[in-house]
Every structure is written in C-alpha cells, then in structure tokens.
Design goal:
The structure holds 3 protein chains of 3 kinds. Chain B is mainly α. Chain B has 13 helices and no strands. Chain B has a single domain, classed as MetI-like fold (Orthogonal Bundle). Chain B is globular. The relative contact order of chain C is 0.13. Classes of the chains: A alpha+beta, B mainly alpha, C mainly alpha.
Chain lengths: 347, 281, 281
C-alpha cells in the first residue's frame, strides 16, 4: 500500500520559484503522469518525491509515512532516469541486482529476482554484457528492470522514453504499461509527450509554471480542460480559440454567429472548439483555407477566421484547396468556454 | 550532517594547504623584500637593480622569452592542426610530440649539452661532414650568440609540448559542424584556420600563452646546464643571491620583480585574448 | 570507371599529392626533432666514460654500462635518487588526498564562494611557484622540517595541487550525476554511492593524475635545490654539481631523470588532453 501525498510543496532556486504550493494525492497502484513543457517544474516535483531535491516548503508522505527528511534509499522508491544511468562498470546482472546487494540480500535470492525481472523486460540473454555493448532500448530495459527488481512501493520515471526513437518509444510504451500494471506499484511518470501521457496514465497532472493546472483522467483532460493552458497544450493540434462577445443572458456572438453560452456569464468569454469537432454545414463559420496538410488518416486544414488561425481536421477523402472557403460548424456539445480574466473553464 | 556544509568540508583541505604554503609564503616574500630587519625599505630593490648583472639578466630573460614564445606558439599551432587532420597513427605521433612534457628543464638542458658541448654531437657531425677541422667550443664566453641559440633550442624543444597539449584539447572542443559550415560557404583550409579555429581557440590560446610566458620568466635549469654563468637570467640571480651571496632580502626582491613581470604579462595576454561574454562555444 | 574517363586527369591530384608529401615530411621531421636529442642522450648514457669525453662521437651506442656504473657508484647519488622517489611519492599521495575532494566538490556542488575558490586554484597556476621556496626555507627551519623529504614534498604538493584539483574536477564532471543519483535510489548513501559507483569509474583517471603529480615533483629543480642541503633530490644533486661533475655523470643522471618521465607520460597520455579541455574553461 503506497498512497503518495504531496502537501503544500514549494521549491525556490534562489529568486526563481520552481514550484508553487503543490497539493496532490496519488492513490495506491495508480499510474500518475506529470505532463508539461520543459521548465514547468515536473522533474523538480519528481525529484522532491524521490529525495534527490529538498522542498523549500511542504511535506511528502509515502504510504502514510512522512518522508521528506529521509534519504532516497529510505523512501521505498525506485527510479528510472532519462539517461538510463546504467552503471558502466557493472554487468547487466550486477546492475539489476545492485539495489538488492545493497540490502545485503543472499546470492540465491538476488539471482532469482534478477532473472525474474530480466525475464519481464526480455533481457535474459544480456545479463553478462556491459552497458557499452547495449543499444539505447536495451539500456532502457535494464534501467526499468533494475527499478522493478527492488519491488518498490513506488516507481518514479523521469522521461524514461524520451531518448529512444519513435518506433521503439511506442513499443516500450505499451510494454512498460503492461509490466507496471502487473507489478502493483504506484507509478509517477514525468513526460512532455502528451501522447505518452494520454496512452499510459490513469490520471494526468498537467503542470504549467510551477503549478498543477489540472489533475484528471486523460479523457477528462482532453474533453474538459480546466483552463485555457490545458486546452491549448493538449491535443495535436490543440483547441481553436475565438473571441465571444457577451449579449447578456448567456447569449454570445462568435465570429458573426450567435451561440448559447454559460447562463451566469455576463462578460466576454473565449470560445473553444477542437479541430476534429466540426462538421461542414452551410450555417458554419466561413473559414478561408490557407494550408492543407494530408496526414493519411485525415486532412488537417489551417484556415483564417476572424483574423486568427483556425484549424480543422476533416475526412481525408475531402478535396480542399488553399483559398477555398469552408463552412465549419462546431458540434454544440463539444464547445467549451473560458473566462479570459481567470483563464479557467466556465460551465 | 548538513549537506550545505559538505562542499566546504571538501574544499577545506586544499584551502588550508594553499593558505599555508601559497598565500602565507607570498606575504613572507614581500615582507622580506621590503625590510632590512628594522622596517620598511627599498634598499633590497635598489641593491638588486643597481648590481651590474641585473640589466643583463633582465635583458636576457626578456630576449629569451621573446625569441622562444612566438616560435613555440606557431609550432604548437602547426602541430595541433596537423594532428587533428591525422587519421592513422594519431596516438603515436601525439605521444612522441608530448614526450618533452615529462622532461624536466634540467634534463632538457643536459640533453642539449650532449649536442652542443665541445666533443658533442654537433661538432662530431660537422667534423664528419668535413665542415670543420677541429671541434669548436660553442658554449664559451667567446660565442654568446651560440650560447643563446643553444638555450633557445633547448627551451623550444622542451616546452612546446605543454602548449601543444592545451591547444589540441582546445581544438577538440570545437564542434566539427563549424568547419563543415565553413566548407559549405566556400572557406579555404587557410581561411577556416583563420576564421574558425583561431577565434574559437582563444580560451586555450590564453591558457597556453599565460602558462608558457610565466614559465619563460622562470627559466633556470636549462640555462644553468648550458650556459652556467655565461648567460645570467633573473631566476638564476635569485638562486645566486640566496646561496652564493646568502642575501635573502635581495633574493626576495628579485622574486617579487619576476612575479610583477609575470602578472603584467598574464593581464596583457588575458586582455588581448579575452572572449566576449556569450561568444563561447 | 570506363576507359574514356581514365584519360581525364584530375588537375587537383598532383598538388594534393604534393601537399600530402609535404605533410608527411613535416610530421616525420617534427618527430625527429623530439626524438633525435633523446637518442643522443641515450648514446652517451650507454657509452663508456672515455667515449663520452672523446671526439668525434659515434652515432651508435656501444652498449657499455661504464657511465651508468660510474653514476651508480658516485657518492651520494643513490641517496639522491632515493630522496627523489620518496618526495615524488609523498607529493603524489598528498596532492590526490587533498586535491580530489575539492575536485569532487567543484564538479558536484553549487556553493557560495565557488568562483573565489576556483580563482585561488587558477592563481596558484599563474604564479612562479618555485619562488615560494625562499620564505618556506625560513619557515621550515623554524618548524624543524628544513632539509627533509617531507618539507620538500609539501612544496611540491603546492605545485601539484592545482593540477590535481583540475584533473579530478574534469574526471568527476565526466561521470553523469544520474549514476550517483541512481545509486542513492538503490539503497546507497553518499559514501557507499561514491565507493560502489564513482570510485571504480574514476580510478584510472585518479591514477593518471597521481602519476602527473609524481612527474611534477620528480622534475622540479629550483625548490628542491633551495630547500635541501644534506637530503638532496636527484635534480638538486645534479644542479649542484653541474660545474664540477664529469660529462658522463651528467648524461647518465639526465638519462635517469628522463626515463621515468617517458614511462609516466605514456601512462597518462589519454588523460592529458581531457584534463586540459576542462581546465581551459
């Protein structure tokens, strides 16, 4: 059982505030992804949980025990590093067994555990090699096996797949998810890759400028972004935004069309719609196509509307030429509204 | 233990050591140079500079540095660029060229003595070729130019390696892409050397020159081995004051003069080769 | 390639070929420039004292151990040799023990005063350090370690420490901090992580910098000559007797000075460049 609780954690590097008052609870056996652009504080938060960094304020609890004064080795965690950190002077076997040996575990038990985790990661045949003889993907597997061999309560991963090429990354993504689900550990996974986050996470914490903007299931984060930042960060391409002028009583005009918005709002809002959530219809927005990108499965059209860029994802069979005017009608149940003064979602 | 203290604990031994054996002795040297037992005085400096040997040794030291350092700079640059182009045998050639790095100035002086002494290899060679009838004594007061040349050659032979090492390391830090970019934009090898290597090598050139110039003003054992008293230099005078004349104050005064010259040249070189902020690799 | 195109001669080929010859010739000449003087020293060392003092010289050694036997039998020389080894070994141990922790601190921590500390280290490199021997001589007499192997080793350690700090700094910097962090997450504390992960990885490099410290001490002349009277090192002994000792003694002594240096430079050749690469920054 290892619930992780992060209570009012803040971190300052000199004058720079890397983390502001972070509160987050990660349930037992949950797969939590910390997602954000570089410099958002996600790695710092992970390193504070791990104990490689000390928080300027706040507490970290793991499995009902306060750990923020403990060394990493006493926190019941294991970590997978971005650059793998496979010890070059040790064989794969000794790498995987390193933590076990530090616990003074008997030779037979070490051998049993190393072989089991190596089997899980499909690297049984590499146990005698040194890291210099391994490919990036193999090193990654060793790093994961080394963490799993500890049978930790919590496994922490800092962009573990970012140094692999695209195909390998996809393969490892699925494999890692399967192995971790079986191991019954709580996992925290840091990444800047939203596809990785969406596909692996039970829950995603989207981070921005040292704050958690939204912590929710992947589909919730995608469908109902809690803030403009999330809407503009998640999705490829992200949501389209248009100015919505309030006429009172929940009536808004957007690019010359009128819409029913949130009833309570009387000020101007931001109107947001995902590129794929539009149909072609005569009463839609008149958008002039600028760039047409056939992406195989569908067609990405970048248009100009109301003086701004506006993207639409259409069926790949569609014939669209630059300069053509498309009539794009947003699906009513997919429209989202944001308050520009707070940048938060308004229902 | 407080982790904030750890770095200080780790640097403490070096700091203490250097304070005791580096900073403190410097204070002592200064004290000794500026006092005659009863208080502040410039007598030591006056004594030293008014001695007839002082202008000669000052001139000799400068002349030697002036003759040696530019040649070494050119030679080490040449060697460094030659090595970077090398594919086969690079390690062996580099090893051979850096051998003198491990050789003391005294040994270097002795090695060149084997060549220039009266029954040495230079005379033997010239005799063998029939150029001379009998061996000449190159290292005598009658041929000051030959003494100078011998010392110069020994110095170039001995101390080019240290510059070579620094420059090779520096060239290794310059990303290859810049050369490829230079080549794409039509720069000739010579232009690439002038416009890419030299400017990017500035930090290394700075280190190499500072180190080399300081060592040039400290030249001592090579001169002792080859010229003895025929070619007085500043460091030799310090030694002579300390041991033959047993005048510690005067020795300290010359030491400070050497120090002042070293610092001046260090500052000049650092200034001349400074890298603008943000223009580093 | 077809028959038609073989007739077309690349006009650049000849000049390129010529350039290649010039290049190879230059490399060979520069190697000879380094090696030939060493060869001359070897001839003199492996010749009988009579041959060393005779004219003209043979250009092949006669493999006579007369000079070396004379050297070994010369009064005081074996003690001097022993002193040289002792001082160099002490210097080696002290400079690594004192310098390596600081190198580690520089590579792993950001701390207040780090720049000042680096400046102190660089300053020591920019100053004519042997001059420190003068006041230290006085200080050593007061503390009773004058004319001892230990006292001289202290001065040589001061010479070697900046290098020890800078080399170990570059060694530790070359080891990704993630390796250490990984060890911490796998059950190590700072000490065991250092033992199990960092130490095995830096050990070859530490050995190299230790050897470098040995060579610095082994070669040092001025401080050795100033600080020792009875317990002379080999360099000091040879310098002291330059005027009076016979040629064959000088050459054999020079040879004994050169040999370990040659071996040591060979042992550390890989690290020479890495260390200067970082030290330049």
């Amino acid at each position: 059982m290892a619930v992780i609780e992060i209570k009012n954690v803040a971190k300052r590097f000199g004058d720079y505030q890397a983390l502001h008052d972070i509160n987050l609870t990660i349930e037992d056996q949950e797969f939590m992804v910390l997602l954000g652009a570089s410099g958002c504080g996600k790695s710092t938060l992970l390193r504070i949980i791990c104990g490689l960094e000390t928080a300027s304020e706040g507490e970290v609890w793991i499995g009902g025990k306060r750990v923020d004064h403990l060394q990493p080795k006493d926190r019941g965690i294991a970590m997978v590093f971005q650059n793998y950190a496979v010890f070059p002077h040790l064989t794969v076997f000794e790498n995987i067994g390193f933590g076990l040996r530090m616990q003074k575990m008997g030779n037979d038990e070490v051998k049993r555990r190393v072989e089991r985790t190596a089997g899980l990661m499909h690297i049984e045949q590499l146990l005698d090699r040194y890291s210099g003889e391994l490919s990036g993907g193999q090193r990654q597997r060793v790093a994961v096996a080394r963490a799993l061999a500890m049978e930790p309560d919590v496994i922490l991963m800092d962009e573990p797949l970012s140094n692999l090429d695209a195909l390998l990354r996809m393969e490892m993504r699925a494999e890692l998810k399967g192995v971790l689900a079986e191991s019954n550990t709580t996992a925290i996974y840091v990444t800047h890759d939203q596809v990785e986050a969406m596909s692996m996470a039970d829950r995603i914490s989207v981070m921005h400028e040292g704050k958690i903007v939204q912590a929710a299931s992947p589909i919730e984060v995608y469908r109902n972004p809690a803030a403009e930042f999330v809407a503009g960060f998640i999705g490829n391409p992200p949501m389209n935004f248009l100015e919505a002028t309030s006429h009172g009583g929940g009536k808004f005009s957007v690019a010359g069309h009128s819409f029913d918005g949130p009833d309570a709002a009387n000020s101007n809002l931001q109107f947001a719609i995902r590129p794929e959530d539009m149909t072609l219809s005569e009463d839609g927005f008149p958008a002039v196509a600028k760039v047409v990108e056939p992406l195989g499965a569908h067609l990405l059209v970048t248009c100009e509307l109301d003086g701004k860029l506006f993207r639409a994802i259409l069926d790949s069979e569609m014939q669209v030429k630059p300069g053509q005017t498309l009539k794009l009608a947003p699906m009513p149940d997919r429209i989202r509204w944001f308050d520009p003064s707070t940048t938060l979602a308004v229902a | 233990m407080n982790p904030r203290l750890l770095p200080y604990i780790l640097i403490l031994p070096v700091t203490l050591f250097l304070c005791l054996f580096f900073l403190y002795p410097f204070v002592l040297v200064a004290q000794q140079a500026f006092s005659n037992g009863s208080g502040f005085t410039l007598t030591n400096f006056r004594d030293v500079t008014e001695h007839w040997k002082f202008p000669i040794s000052l001139k000799n030291t400068f002349l030697l540095a002036l003759a040696v350092v530019p040649i070494q700079l050119a030679l080490s640059l040449l060697m460094a660029t030659m090595v970077t182009k090398m594919k086969k045998g690079r390690d062996l050639i580099l090893y051979i060229w850096t051998i003198p790095l491990g050789i003391s100035d005294l040994a270097a002086g002795i090695i060149w003595l084997a060549i220039f002494e009266q029954s040495g290899f230079l005379n033997s060679m010239m005799g063998g070729l029939g150029l001379i009838d009998s061996p000449t004594n190159f290292l005598s007061y009658q041929s000051p130019v030959m003494v100078f040349v011998a010392i110069m050659l020994a110095e170039i032979w001995r101390a080019t390696a240290i510059m070579l090492v620094i420059l090779v390391a520096g060239i290794g830090l310059i990303p290859k892409e810049y050369y490829e970019a230079g080549e794409v934009f039509g720069a000739t090898p010579w232009q690439r050397f002038l416009k890419i290597t030299l400017p990017m090598l500035r930090p290394s050139l700075q280190t190499a020159l500072v180190l080399r110039v300081i060592l040039a003003f400290e030249v001592f054992a090579v001169v002792q081995a080859l010229g003895g008293t025929l070619f007085p230099v500043l460091m030799g005078e310090t030694y002579a004051y300390q041991f033959e004349l047993l005048n510690g104050g005067a020795a300290a005064a010359i030491a400070l003069i050497i120090l002042a010259i070293s610092i001046t040249f260090t500052l000049i070189i650092m200034r001349a080769l400074r890298v603008p902020k943000g223009a580093t690799i | 390639m077809t028959a038609a195109t073989t007739d077309v001669v690349d006009p650049g080929q000849d000049t390129r070929k010529a350039g290649r010859y010039v290049y190879i010739t230059a490399v060979v000449l520069l190697c000879a420039w380094v090696l030939v003087p060493l060869y001359f020293l070897l001839i003199n060392t492996l010749s009988s004292p009579e041959a060393v003092n005779s004219y003209p010289k043979s250009f092949i050694p006669e493999f006579d151990l007369g000079s070396l036997t004379f050297f070994a039998g010369f009064e005081g020389i074996l003690t001097a040799l022993k002193n040289s080894i002792l001082v160099a070994a002490l210097t080696m141990v002290m400079s690594i023990l004192i310098g390596a922790p600081a190198g580690y601190a520089l590579s792993r921590f950001e701390f207040r005063g780090k720049e000042l500390f680096r400046l102190l280290i660089l300053l020591t490199r920019a100053f004519p350090l042997p001059l420190l021997a003068l006041p230290l001589a006085v200080m050593f007499i007061r503390t009773g370690i004058d004319d001892t192997v230990f006292g001289l080793a202290l001065v040589h350690t001061t010479l070697a420490i900046p290098f020890a700090v800078l080399i170990t700094f570059s060694l530790f910097s070359g080891i990704p901090i993630e390796l250490e962090e990984a060890a911490w997450t796998l059950g190590c504390n700072r000490v065991t992580a250092f033992q199990k992960v960092i130490l095995p990885l830096v050990l070859p490099g530490i050995t190299a910098s230790a050897i470098f410290a040995f060579v610095i001490s082994w070669n040092e002349v001025f401080a050795a000559a100033v600080l020792t009277i009875e317990n002379r090192t080999l360099t000091a002994f040879l310098l002291q007797n330059l005027d009076t000792s016979p040629l064959h003694l000088k050459f054999a002594g020079g040879f004994i000075l050169v040999v370990p240096a040659l071996i040591f430079i060979f042992a550390v050749r890989k690290y020479l460049f890495a260390m200067w690469g970082i030290a330049n920054r």
